Amino acid sequence: MSVTRDEVLRIARLAELEVDEETLPELSEQMSRILDYVAQLSAVPANGTVKIFVPGPDAIRFRTDEVSPWPLAFGPAEFAPAFKEGFFVVPRLDQFE
């Protein structure tokens, strides 16, 4: 696929980039090569027959992804001055009474 000079200028304008006139042919050629490579990648069959590469022996299995809460180093009752029924007990402020 060939990228034209005008397409390079349009892409540069959209990306808010300033492109010199002398670099336009080089950018056009590089973008064309990138698009050709992407076209080659899309030609690779992806119907599930290609095995994903995992380094190491085939016997390696991934662990299940389990989310669990991180335990505290010590319980809140140890560092809270007053802790009752799962809540921190704090003194009342006089200005809010």
Describe the structure.
The protein has 97 residues and is mainly α. The protein has a domain at 5-42. Helix content is 34%, strand content 4%. It contains 3 helices and 2 strands, in the order αααββ. The chain has helices at residues 5-14, 24-42, 76-79, and strands at residues 83-84, 87-88. The chain has a two-stranded antiparallel sheet. A hairpin with a 2-residue loop joins strand 1 and strand 2. Helix 1 crosses helix 2 (24-42). The radius of gyration is 31 Å and the shape is elongated. The N and C termini lie far apart (75 Å).
Helix-strand blueprint:
Elements: H1 5-14, H2 24-42, H3 76-79, E1 83-84, E2 87-88
Antiparallel strand pairs: 1-2
In brief:
The chain is mainly alpha-helical and 97 residues long. It has three helices and two strands, in the order αααββ.
Helix content: 25-40%
N-to-C series of helices and strands: HHHEE
- Strand fraction band? under 5%
Question: Total number of helical segments?
Answer: 3
Q: Which overall shape is indicated by the principal axes computed on the Cα atoms?
A: elongated
Radius of gyration using CA atoms only: 31 Å
Instruction: Report the count of strand segments.
Output: 2
